[in-house]
Write a structure and sequence with these properties.
Elements (H helix, E strand, L loop, with lengths): L12 E6 L4 H5 L1 H9 L3 E8 L11 H16 L3 E7 L9 H9 L7 E5 L8 H17 L3 E5 L2 H11 L11 E4 L2 H8 L8 H10 L2 E8 L5
Helix pairs in contact: 3-7, 4-5, 6-8
Length: 219
């Protein structure tokens, strides 16, 4: 991917804010594992049960809740909070209301990790979850890192698989991750495994990109 290699911020505790079970692993898992490997206290806040997914069988609310907790534990997260907002309808909720749900969980947190601009895939739930986290962080004077993918990777995925990824040309941080560990955690979301995930991870290799949504200097 290039020669840029940078270290993650030295956060001792962080909050991961996502819309659906599997977002914390399929998207953010490599980065989460890097934080937990060095002893950071990672808390995950997920807004929905992901019940609107077109993948998987059975009672998805129960299935995906179980998958979330197993994958988060495998990544080393200490706490998982799964709220019960309707999947696919986060954009129907006032951003300020969602931000309040995040802000009350920001005490004793050094930073927040979210999906980057445009929710990475353009999914309205991703965009709203990130917007709520950033708004809460602004009110709480907390920095925010957003996970993104390279524009080159987005173009390949969109061309090959008809996806709607939104890539960036340059990150603020480019870090190496333990992809083997990441893949192991992904497999714990068995109901949602799909070709897009595996192709994306193949294209990314051992690197993940991040951008500042709210810099430490802004706090």
């Amino acid at each position: 991917m290039g020669s840029m290699r940078q270290t993650l911020p030295g956060w001792d505790a962080l909050l991961v804010v996502v819309a659906h079970p599997d977002d914390e692993t399929f998207g953010l898992g490599g980065v989460v594992a890097r934080f937990t490997e060095r002893g950071a206290d990672v808390k995950i806040l997920c807004f929905t049960h992901g019940e609107a997914s077109t993948l998987g069988e059975g009672e998805l609310r129960r299935v995906r809740s179980r998958e979330l907790r197993r994958a988060a534990a495998d990544l080393g997260a200490n706490t998982v909070e799964l709220l019960d907002l309707p999947d696919g309808h986060l954009a129907d909720r006032p951003l300020e209301d969602l931000a309040e749900l995040v802000e009350v969980r920001l005490d004793h947190v050094d930073g927040v990790l979210v999906f980057g601009p445009g929710g990475v895939t353009g999914h309205p739930d991703h965009i709203q979850a990130t917007g709520a986290a950033v708004l809460a962080a602004e009110q709480h004077h907390t920095p925010v890192l957003g996970w993104v993918i390279p524009e080159r990777v987005a173009k390949i995925l969109n061309g090959e698989l008809g996806t709607t990824f939104r890539g960036v040309t340059r990150p603020d941080l480019a870090i190496r991750v333990d992809r083997e560990r990441h893949v192991r955690a992904c497999r714990l979301h068995a109901s949602q495994l799909n070709p897009v995930l595996w192709r994306r991870l193949e294209l990314l290799g051992d690197e993940e990109w991040l951008v500042w949504m709210r810099t430490p200097e802004q706090t």
